[in-house]
Design goal:
By secondary structure, the protein is α/β, with parallel strands linked by helices. 20% of the residues lie in helices and 27% in strands. It has one domain: 2,3-Dihydroxybiphenyl 1,2-Dioxygenase, domain 1 (Roll), CATH 3.10.180. Strands 1-3-2 form a 3-stranded mixed sheet, with helices on one face. The chain has a 3-stranded mixed sheet with strand order 4-6-5, with helices on one face. Strand 2 and strand 3 form a beta hairpin. InterPro entries: Glyas_Bleomycin-R_OHBP_Dase, Glyas_Fos-R_dOase_dom, VOC_core.
């Protein structure tokens, strides 16, 4: 049996702002509200996965970690730096402006939070 994650709901103070934020960092195209369930701001991560952001007052932040290729990683870090967006080398140090050059996976990692407090982690093998 094959099991894949199809989508996950990500709480946010402003669903469209949160979807646009991650789309900009990862150089993805934000497609707008879900065509049927219009209370979700849907961001397609890849062919198999969407993040469906839902506006929830006082939403608790989630941690989402993505394996990315080195080109995507470098482009995301460049975007964060070029736009003065806080990022860092650990979940507790996600605003120190550093990149983890010795991530536990053996590659590099970077953490950043969206305005709703969702904490993202990008991991690359090199």
């Amino acid at each position: 049996m094959t099991i894949r994650l199809n989508h996950t709901i990500v709480p946010a103070a402003d669903n469209e702002a949160a979807a646009r934020y991650l789309a900009a960092v990862l150089h993805l195209e934000y497609g707008g509200l879900h065509p049927v369930a219009r209370h979700f701001a849907q961001l397609r991560i890849n062919e198999e996965l969407t993040l469906d952001y839902m506006t929830i007052p006082d939403a608790p932040g989630h941690h989402l970690a993505f394996d990315v290729d080195p080109v995507t990683f470098d482009a995301a870090v460049a975007h964060l730096r070029a736009h003065g967006l806080p990022h860092g080398d650990g979940p507790g140090t996600h605003t120190n402006g550093q990149v983890d050059e010795r991530h536990p996976t053996g590659g590099r990692g970077v953490y950043f939070a969206d305005p709703s407090g969702n904490l993202y982690e990008l991991i690359t093998s090199s």
